[in-house]
Structure formats: structure tokens, C-alpha cells
Amino acid sequence: MNLEKVIFAFFIVLALTLNFGFFIGDMDDPNHHNVYELFAALVVSLIATIMKFGDRAHIGAVLLATSLVADLQLIAAVIVWTMAVHASDAGLTPSIMSSIVSLSGGALLANITSVVILVTETVMFRR
Amino acid sequence: MHNLLYLLLRRMRTPLIVVILAYAISILGMVLIPGMDDQGNPWRMSFFHAFYFVSFMGSTIGFGEIPYPFTDPQRIWTTVAMYMTVISWLYAIGSLFSVLQDPAFKRILRFTTFSREVKAMREPFYMVCGMGGAGKLVVSELAAHDIRSVVVDRDETKIQMLRLEELPIHVPGLTGDVTDTSTLLAAGLKKPQCRGVIALTGSDQINLTIAITSKLLVPERTVICRAEDHDAQANIESFGTDYIINPYDAFAKRFAMMFQSPSMYLVYEWMTSMHEAPLSEFAAPPRGIWIVCGFGRFGKAVQQSLSFKGIQTVIIEADIKGTEAPEGAIEGRGTEAITLHEAGVEQAVGLIAGTDDDANNLSIIMTAKKLNEDLFIVARQNLSTNDTLFAAANSDIAIHPGRLIGQRVVDLITTPLLADFLRMARDQTEEWANILVSRVVGVLTDKPPESWVITISTKETPAIVHLLRKGAAVTLGSLQTDPRDITTSLPCVALYLKDTDQNEELLPENDKRLDIGDQLLICGQPDAETHMRWTAQNLHALIYISSGSDSPCGTLWRRLEARKQTGTQISQDGT
Predict the structure, then answer these.
(1) Looking at chain B from residue 440 to 469, which residues have their Cβ under 8 Å from any Cβ of chain A?
(2) In a domain, B96, yes or no
(3) Among chain B residues, CA nearest to A60
(4) Which of B352, B414, B422, B487 has most Cβ atoms within 10 angstroms of its Cβ?
């Protein structure tokens, strides 16, 4: 067992699960989407990205790319949330909430791709 | 480039994760810890406020307790967070600098820069391996001739010296193992712009490796190789290396020529002398007994060619057994009066200080001059840093192997026709050489002659090609006429002509008719080349020279001229 691989896979899967946890629920209901969960999803996603830094294999490059996509989507979601709460009078309206959730849905897709690649690589690894 | 980025990212992995964790923990803490607003109501920071606060705290900007003054639990957490974020930043920045300063990283950075520079080369260039005396000379002379080159050397200081030298064009340099194929590939071995590989390192074995690598990978690439040992030379020759230069043999041959044909020697010296080097004064060496100090590769080569010319030699060598010196050799270094005395310095006419140690050679010269003032002295100089010392020692001939090699290489590259000319000249008589010397002396000032090659082609001599295509004849004489004054000719001598059928002609005459594809080797004063090229490119100058009159250039004037001529004809007919 390789500890590095364990931590690597841990963060990638954790990024996916947290992302999923935030995403699930009614699209436009703020009560179904926890801000702490979004925060955790973003932090874990960033860490997962950095874990993929410096991997020269082709599969590593693809993993890095999917991770960067997830970061970008989550950061966009966070910015929308911040703007809605702090920089506009409207607050967290259902339409804004659904756009935040759909952004995180995009990140979820990227994270799923990451995990699929990770699993594929593990299956191909015959040792 | 990718290599560099990957290395940097890989090394920055842990520091960046530490920074993110420190931030995440601090922010989360700020959000979770209860605070109080200005009315005393319980209040909690939102993620936005927490991120804002931690960002300015972590970067030590510190705007204060925003938006409301903190409660004590918040202050306790801020104290923890402050140290956490600042230390994580210091750690990250420290790691970044240590990566940038890392010798391995720097080496990769330089390698990447070098490869990029070589990749971007669009002009033809030469690859020079080894930046010793010879390499340095080759690089600076090529730069003076506007020929690009790239340099590889094992020694970092040599490459740094290259950067300090103010060459007129940029010469990329790389510190690397030249026996490593990847180094040669990075230096552009496989690039079509690479015209040739020049192996000039101090070791025959390394030169051999470079030559064999380039001949295996790119067989058509020209390889010029330095070799000092006959075994290595034969080995390098065996796989088709284009030019092999053995400095000792080269000098020995040249030296022997001085005895046989002084004028021929002078021709060789002139033709192969460096760019703007002082015109060497010639002194013919006397015949008689010669003392050779040092029987290494240099001594052996000189002794051999001297005995070939029937000149008696006495050898002084410290290690008689190791060098297999012939019988009658005297043991010693030659730096002591006793040894020189034993060798008969009083009766000798010449002395060759040919050890591989400059201090010893200088000492031999000084001692010998004291014993016999009239000695003809040949000094071997090993390091180019000792130039002033050898000039002060006042020897008749100073030979510097590195410089000799460098000069040969430069000649091969810049005037390839010169080798053909010298090969043909070698078979000529001493009288022929005398005539040539007097001709060249006739056009010279105090500077040494420059030699240059003119090829009759659309690119180089459009005017000549234009006239030839029209069926007109252009002679060598018109090319040698001064375009500013057609009654005089340019201070130059045409040495050699080679046409497209490989017919060769030495010293072609002025009435020789030029043809497309002819290659001409000409020597003379440097500015003569400028005027000659002007004539070759400018149609009006050429017509003026061949006909002696200015022809009109514009369409209108040409018509007027034609009409005037017919008009004159009619009036002449009328009368």
C-alpha cells in the first residue's frame, strides 16, 4: 500500500462527495444547500488540484485539467453567493440559488470525471 | 519549458497545500466563533467577511477588527490564525526561492533556455564543442565573419567567459557533457541549419565520441575534429570524419616547408593568417644542427619532418624511456645550461623549445640565448594567457597549438576554396611561389592580405550574370578594375578559379572570361573586396567598366540616346 496514493485518492473522492452533498436537494431552496459544505468542497477541491501538480504522465495532466475545471466552477459559485448576500439588496433569491447550485453541478461533473479516470487508472494498474 | 514548470509545481505542492489549509482553518474558525455587533447582539461572521479578514491578516496588511470590534474568543482565535497564516506564507515563499536557487533547477533552466535559442535559429550555424584556446578563437572569428555558432563545454566557467566576451552576434552556450548525445541534440545536431560539428576538446577520446555520434545520427553533417594522437586520428578517420586537424603534424609540415621553399611558406602564412593579424616578418631558418627540447607529440612530429628534410637533430628529453627517444638523446629538461651544453648548443643553429610546460619552454629559451645568441628559436606556447611572456622572450617562431587549430577551422569554414588552392600550390615550384609573393606584395600595404571567395551566381553577382545571359563577355580584368577610376585596378590578386566542371586554374589571367558557376579565390587589401562586390552587383558600374562610358539608366533617357545615335547616323549619311 502506498500512502501517497491513499491520500491522493482520498482527496479526489472527498472533493466529489462534498460537491455532491452540496448539490443534492431542491435547486432553488437555500435550506437544502449548506454554505459550510460549499466552503469545504472548494477547499478540498483546491487541495486535490495541488496534489495533482507535477505529474508528468498524460493521465495526470487530464486529472489536473478536470480538477481545474471543478475549481473554476466552485469559485464562480462562491462569488455568485457572496455577491448576492453582500453586494445586492435582493439576497439569496431562488433564481440566484439555482444558478449557484447549477454551477456546483458543473463542478460535480468534472469531479465525477476525475474519479472515473482515477478508477480506470487503478484498474489498469496490474501490480 | 514543460520540464521546468512541472519541477516547480512538484516542489511547490506541499507549501501550497499548507497555505490553503492554514487559510481554510482560519476562515472556518472565524465563521464558527460567535461575535457581537455594535448593538451588543450576537453576530457571526459570514464566509465573505472571514475570507476578507483572514486575507489581510495573513498578508500582514491588518486593517483592524472589521466590521465590528472582536469579542475575546475571536481575538484568541485571531492570535492563533495570525501565526498560522504568516508562517505558512513564509514557508511557501521560502520554498519558492529555494527551488529557484536550486542548482539542479538552474541547470534545467539554462538547458531549456539554450535549447529554445538553438531551436529558434533560422540561419546556418556551427556547433563548437570545447571552449579552449582553439574553440574561443573559432567562435570569435566566426562571429566576426557573421557566421553563427553554438557552444558546448563541460566547464561552467568557460561558458560564463563566453557570456562576458563582447561578440558582435549572440552565441548560445551550454555547460554540459559533450559525450552525452542529448546534449548534442539540444545543441541542434539534427537541425537542418546546422552546417557542421567542430570537436575541439582537449581529449582525443571525447572528440572521437563527438565525431562518431554525429556521423551515426546525421551522416551528411560535416565534422571537423581535433586529434593529437596518431592512433586516435586513424580511428576518427575510419568512419568518414570530414576534416581532422592535428596541430603538431600541421606545424611540423609547415615548418619543414620553411626549409624547402621559404616563399611557399610565406604564401601559406599569408593565406591562413588571422583576421587583421599583424603581417608576420619572415625569417628563413638556417640549416645545420637543431636541438629539440621535449620529445612528446610535438617534438616527435618536428623531429620527423626535420630529418625528412635531411637536417640533423639533437634531442633533449627528461623521460627518455617513456617517450622512446632515439639513441643519442640527452637526458634532462633543457632548462639547465649543462644539458644544453652537452647537446652542443654552441654549434647548433636552431633550438625548438617544445615541452608541454610554458615555464620550462621560456626557461629553455632564456638559457639557450645566453649560451648562443644567434640561435634560431622556435617556441611552443601552450596557454594563450602567456602571450605577453612569449612576445617578450622574442623567439623567431612562436607556435600555439590551440591557435593553429582554430585558424585552420576558421579557414575551412570561411574560405573552403583556400584548401583547394593550397593543395594545388604545394605542387608548384619555388619560382612560381616567388612570382606569387612578388605579385601579392605589389598590392599590399602594411596589413596582411585578406582572402575572399566570389561565386558567379544570381545571388552574389547579379550584374555579371545579367551580362552573361545577354551573351556579353565579362573578363576577370573588369571585375578587378576599380569602379571609381577605370584606369586603375583594385589592389588584389586572383589566386584560383574553379568552374562548374571542377576545372581548376591557378593564378588566372586578366583576360580570363568568367562563366556562371565559377568560383574565384581572390586575395588583396580588405577594402578591395567591397569595391569588387559593388561592381559585381551594380549593372551600371559593370557596364561603365567594360565599355568606359556611362549608359543612361531610365527609359526616357535610353530612348533619347537611341534617337540621338540614329539621328547622328542620318546626318552623317546626308553629308
Answers:
(1) none
(2) yes
(3) B6
(4) B352
Question: B9 and A54 in contact by Cβ < 8 A?
Answer: yes
Q: Looking at the structure, tell me whether residues B196 and B239 fall in a common domain.
A: yes
CA distance B153 to B382: 19
List the domain range (segments joined by +) for residue B46.
2-101
Query: In Å, how far is A11's CA from the nearest CA of chain B?
Result: 12
- Chain A CB within 8 Å of residue B6 CB: yes
Q: Which of B245, B270, B301 is the last residue of a domain?
A: B245
The answer to whether the beta carbons of residues B45 and B29 sit under 8 Å apart is: no
Verify that B395 and B473 share a domain, yes or no: no
Residues B91 and B126 in one domain: no
- Chain B residue closest to A61 (CA)? B6
From the list A50, A56, A86, which residue is nearest B48 (CB)?
Answer: A86
Integer Cα distance of B378 and B357 in angstroms: 14
Q: Strands, E, within B34-141: which ranges?
A: 35-36, 42-43, 125-129
Q: Is the backbone peptide bond immediately before B67 cis, with ω within 30 degrees of 0?
A: yes
Residue B306 lies in a domain: yes
- Does B433 fall in a domain? no
Examine the domain organization and report whether B86 and B134 are in the same domain: no
In a domain, B570, yes or no: no
Residue B224 φ/ψ, nearest 5 degrees: -110, 125
Q: Chain A residues with CB inside 8 Å of B9's CB? A: 53-54
Judged by CB atoms closer than 8 Å, whether chains meet at B17 and A51 is answered as yes
Q: Which of residues 476-515 of B touch A (CB under 8 A)?
A: none
User: Which residue from A35, A56, A78 is facing B6, i.e. has the nearest CB?
Assistant: A56
A78: which chain B residues are within 8 Å (Cβ-Cβ)? 47
Integer distance in angstroms from the first to the last C-alpha of chain B?
Answer: 87
Name residue B379's beta-bridge partners.
B353, B398
CB contact under 8 A, B20 and A85: no
Burial of B315: CB neighbours in 10 Å, binned 0-12, 13-18, 19+ = buried
Sequence spans of domains, chain A:
3-124
Say yes or no: B404 and B451 in one domain.
Answer: no
> Which residues, 6 or more positions from A46, have their beta carbon under 8 angstroms from its beta carbon?
A71, B20
Q: Which residue of A has its CA nearest to B31?
A: A36
pLDDT in tens, chain B (575 residues): 457 777 888 889 999 999 999 999 999 999 999 999 888 899 989 999 999 999 999 888 888 888 889 999 999 999 999 999 999 999 999 999 999 998 888 888 888 889 999 999 999 999 999 988 889 889 988 998 889 999 999 888 888 888 888 888 889 999 888 888 888 999 999 999 999 999 998 888 999 999 999 999 999 989 999 998 888 888 888 888 888 888 888 888 888 888 777 777 777 777 776 655 555 666 678 888 888 888 888 888 888 888 888 888 888 888 887 877 787 788 888 788 888 888 888 888 888 888 888 898 999 888 888 888 888 888 888 887 888 888 888 888 888 888 888 888 888 888 888 888 888 887 888 888 888 888 887 887 777 777 888 888 888 888 888 888 888 888 888 888 888 887 888 888 888 888 888 888 888 888 888 888 888 888 888 788 888 888 888 888 888 887 777 666 677 777 777 777 776 555 555 44
ipTM of the complex model: 0.87
A40 to chain B: closest CA residue: B24
Residues in A closer than 8 angstroms to B12, CB to CB, are 53
Write phi, then psi, for B507 (nearest 5 degrees): 40, 65
* The three grid cell numbers given for residue A50, joined into one nine-digit string: 495541488
Are residues B178 and B97 part of one domain?
A: no
Q: Domain boundary residue among B184, B218, B245? A: B245
Q: How many domains does chain B have?
A: 4
